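quick one, 182 residues, struct below
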Amino acid sequence: MMNMLWRMKQLNIIFNERRGDMFTFFKNKEVNALYAPISGKKIAIEKVDDPLFSKEMLGASVAFLPSKNCVVSPCVGEITMIAPTLHACGIQTKDGMEILLHIGIDSVMLKGKGFKTLCHVGAHVEIGTPLIQFDFSMMKDNHIDTTVIMIITNSKDYQISLDKDEKRVVSGKTKLGEGVKC
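---
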């Protein structure tokens, strides 16, 4: 009986030591908080009228029907790309998460008309930093869907947790989820 109690105590000590190591392991991982890049209504990605986005072929995604005309940074990072047609930009976080912000469906056909960049490649951005403004009326006049899509292009390298509920969001204020590198 005494032997059994001693053994149980040893197992408990080993368990607690391993548990401590496990929590230290996760504590050292960078957590990338992701916020709404635009004010409006977050919609199910499956509702986007483009299979490239609706089937998440480019990575884990979230879509928005905008009520404002300014896309902001959803995370802390660095601007890595601005499309020549100004309808999209890329951000990379400190640990390498890559986020693509895409304004409109087929908006590339506007060839930059109606878009104004508020940042530059290499710029450090915080959550809520204004990135691109766009002209709603020009897009609607040209029959361009104004849906904004946020894509984590290297989501296979991260444990991603995104809120999938449809709801109203405020740019830079509504938290959508987070990602931790695998």
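The chain has a mean pLDDT of 89.
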